[in-house]
Each structure stands twice: as structure tokens, then as C-alpha cells.
Amino acid sequence: MAEFWTGFLWPLIWIVLQIVVILIPLLLSVAYLTYAERKVIGAMQLRQGPMVVGPMGLLQPIADAVKLLMKETIFPTGANKIVFILAPVITFTLAMIGWAVIPFGEGLVIADINVGVLYLFAISSLGVYGILMAGWASNSRYAFLGALRSAAQMVSYEIAIGLIIINVLICAGSLNLSDIVRAQDGLWYFIPHFPMFMIFIASILAETNRHPFDLPEAEAELVAGYNVEYSSMGFALFFLGEYANMILMSAMAAILFLGGWLPPFDVAPLNWIPGPIWLILKICFVLFIFIWARATLPRYRYDQLMRLGWKVFLPLSLLWVVLTSGFLVAFDMLPK
């Protein structure tokens, strides 16, 4: 019995506790990211945003969650119910399991695997399936067209994201996310790779279907895109999945380009701040860019969106891979 407890049960309980410690704050962050978005956009547009539910509107996300939970779940006529239910579950689950490899500090990671970057890239690629399933299972032309748009958009920008990540991997010499952060001690990668950092930010906006690349959900043309037939918890899971993906992509940007848990300068007052706090601050900075883009930029046309991905971002990111690898070889700076 003692061997069972020490060899199997206790490690399992420890892993479950780690997952709970990450998931509960993450779900609260997703809920209050919607509040922060409405407040920041309100300030940028000279209005107040949520102000009624709770002090300064702080309970508005809770009220929205209760409203969605209490609404009736409606299945469209002719919909494939099993796939219709599975689609938002898959989208939300994928947004959660990506956090297994995100390092919050030195040794603070659930799974410190050597192929963490590939794991994250695979998780983000699988997100296409949930959206396609939702569009097809809804038995609606609007939803299906929105799903096709979203799939084409996500696949197009994943290629640019992959090439941009290759630049970071060449410099760090590792696929392990913790090693990538340690390699930035003294020089964050956004400085030598600033053009790729900007393209990466634009690409994750497109990858998460956010403004100004929110063509799959363009209300004027497609009513609401692939989730138009969803209500109640189905819609809530898509909504939570989208905002959780925003936070996950922001964490990727912080780890790959902004030094992860490392402080900006190696001075005593900054070193006293815990590493997870630095990572959270950097994630908030990238999330502010998401909100800023929504508040200020007009939506792209679909042909402009695809041309930007294939004719601008893809050649530039491929050229940067050649320049980076050539520079490191020429000056004998390849990581050992």
C-alpha cells in the first residue's frame, strides 16, 4: 500500500494540483480579460465601459457567465448533434492544454519537455478542427462559410508563425521553452529580431481571428461566422476558447521574444520581483496590443488578408531565416 501511495497516487495528485493551480487563475483571467477589453476600448473611445454590475462594473463578467449558463441550448434542424457539441469542447480544451509546457519561472512548469515549441505549434494547428467541425455540424451556409474562411486564414498564418519561430530556435539551439528563455539572459530576442516580432504579433492576431483580421466573424457579411448557430454553453466555450487562445499566444510571444520570466535589466530591485510576475506583465503587454488593435484599426478585406499572409509575411519570414542562419554561421555564433 505504501508503494502504491508513493509510486503512483501521490505523483498523480501532485500533477492534478499543478493543473488546478494553473487552470483556475487562467479561467478567471479569461473572464476578466473581457472586462479589461471593454474598459480599455471604452477609454480609447472616450466612454466608460461596464459600470453597473458591482463596483466599477467588476462583476460584469460573472453576470455574463450566469446569463450564458441559464440560457437554453438550441440545436439547429438537421445539425449533427454529436459533432455540434464536440466542436466548442475541442476548441476550449486545446486552449487549455497548451499551458502544460509554458514555464512560469525557473523550474515552474508542468511538463518541461524538450519539444515544447513543437507541442505548442501542434496544439495551435489543431484549433482548425474545432472551427471546421462547428461550421459543418451547424447545417448552416453562414456558419460553414465562416468556418472555411477561418480554416484558410489560420493555416495561412501558421506557416509564417512557424518560420518566425525557426529564427528563435536557431539562436537558442533548443526546442525547450525554458532553454529559450535562458538563452535570452542579457539580450531579449525582440531586439535582434524586431521585424519578426512585429510580424509575429500580426500573425497571432490573424491566428486567433482577432481584429483587424476577424474575417470569419465579420458580422456585416456573415452574421457571426462559424458560431452563429451556437447558444448557451456552446457559445460560451467558443468565447472562452478565443480569449484563452489570446492569452496563450501572448505567453508564446513573451517567452520567444520578451525573455519570459527574466527581468529587463540585471539590477537588484528588479531581480527581487518573482519571475512569474515578469511573465504575467509581459503577457498583459501583448494582450494590450490585441485590445489596442481592436479599438483603432479597420477590418481588412479577405483578399488583402490572404495577400498579406502569402505575399508579405511568408517571404519576409523565410528571408529572415536565411539571414539569421547566414549571420550565425559567418560569425561562428551558432549555439553549442
Textual characterization of the structure:
- It is a single chain.
- The mean pLDDT is 86.
- The protein has twelve helices and no strands.
- The chain has 336 residues and is mostly helical.
- The chain has helices at 2-44, 60-70, 81-97, 116-137, 141-172, 177-183, 194-207, 219-222, 232-257, 268-271, 275-296, 302-330.
Largest sheet: none
- Rg computed from alpha carbons, rounded to a whole number of angstroms: 21 Å
Approximate shape:
globular
Please identify the oligomeric state: single chain
Distance between the termini: 47 Å
Beta-strand content estimate: under 5%
Order of helices and strands: HHHHHHHHHHHH
Number of domains: 2
Quickly give the structural class: mainly alpha
Number of strands: 0
Integer average pLDDT: 86
Tell me roughly what share of residues is in helical segments.
55-70%
Task: Give the tags.
globular; 2 domains; mainly alpha; 336 residues; 0% strand; 69% helix
What are the SSEs and their pairings?
Layout: H1 2-44, H2 60-70, H3 81-97, H4 116-137, H5 141-172, H6 177-183, H7 194-207, H8 219-222, H9 232-257, H10 268-271, H11 275-296, H12 302-330
Brief overview:
The chain is mostly helical. The chain has helices at 2-44, 60-70, 81-97, 116-137, 141-172, 177-183, 194-207, 219-222, 232-257, 268-271, 275-296, 302-330.
